[in-house]
Specification:
alpha/beta; single chain; 11 helices; Rossmann fold
């Protein structure tokens, strides 16, 4: 058996409950794939997107739906070592990637305010353009369950708003294109366990900001997302289902108990129809 076949087998057997079923659940529950789709599976080179690529290959084998896949890698300016590691991992995993070049890292390296946000927006724009060039109507990103929970808390603590990372989104800047997140229910700890069990080594973010962070001697130098990750970890020591409850809080919103909210461009306030309601 080839190594990539053993890795594939681990997804559907050893990690069937933790990864495979959660991947299928996300796709099914949120109707991420339809017949006739051509999906650009966007690979950053990290553990999440590489696992997503393998899961897509597996579900494609089942042929329950008629869809096509393109595995694309955008090089935003990786150093040669990281670039080669992505190429080698793709060979190990038997993922036929298409790599294209951009200069995003050089364009945002001198930005002082929100460089990571700008980098993410620029990356997504390039991914949409490449996917469209390849005839795709969807792009798939490797965000997982923990990313969703962390986003909810970051919005509350630092954005003064209640929001979440959606499982799929129709692009407003690229008409006819859609973004999907098939790992929506997969936990990061299970992705790490899959990686380690198969002896795989993937790149991290690999941008100049990450390199500077890794070289920093200041223990207080931590990103907001890492801060949320640590907070959730600490809270789970007291109640192990805290992350599930955070997720369920954005599924069980009672608008009758919300002071105000927005839907599109419309703003709603509880006082708008306050006099027409009676206390239960």
């Amino acid at each position: 058996m080839e190594r990539y076949e053993e890795i594939e087998q681990s997804i559907t057997k050893r990690f069937r409950k933790e990864i495979w079923k959660m991947f299928v659940k996300g796709i099914s529950e949120y109707e991420m794939i339809q017949d006739g789709d051509k999906i650009a599976v966007c690979i950053s080179g990290g553990k999440d997107s590489m696992l997503m690529a393998k899961c897509f290959q597996e579900i494609k084998k089942h042929r329950k739906m008629n869809f096509e896949l393109e595995f694309i890698v955008m090089n935003p300016g990786y150093n040669e070592e990281n670039k080669q590691k992505i190429i080698e991992n793709a060979k190990i995993l038997n993922v036929p990637i298409t790599m294209f070049e951009t200069d995003i890292f050089n364009r945002v390296v001198h930005i002082e305010n929100n460089p990571c946000y700008l980098c993410a927006r620029m990356r997504r724009g390039h991914l949409y353009e490449k996917a469209k060039e390849l005839g795709c109507n969807k792009i798939a990103l490797g965000h997982h369950f923990d990313d969703v929970i962390e986003t909810i808390l970051m919005g509350m603590f630092y954005g003064s708003q209640m929001q979440t990372m959606m499982p799929k989104v129709c692009s407003t800047s690229h008409p006819g294109m859609e973004l999907i997140r098939p790992l929506y229910f997969v936990r990061e700890e299970d992705i790490i366990a899959w990686r380690d069990r198969n002896g795989l080594d993937f790149i991290q973010c690999a941008c100049k900001f990450t390199e500077e962070y890794n070289m920093s001697q200041n223990p207080g130098d931590i990103s907001k997302r890492e801060e949320m990750k640590q907070l959730i970890k600490d809270m789970k020591k007291k109640y192990d289902k805290i992350d599930i409850n955070i997720f369920n809080s954005v599924q069980n919103v009672n608008l009758d108990t919300i002071i105000s909210y927005r839907k599109g461009n419309e703003f709603h306030h509880f006082l708008d129809d306050y006099g027409n309601k009676k206390e239960e």
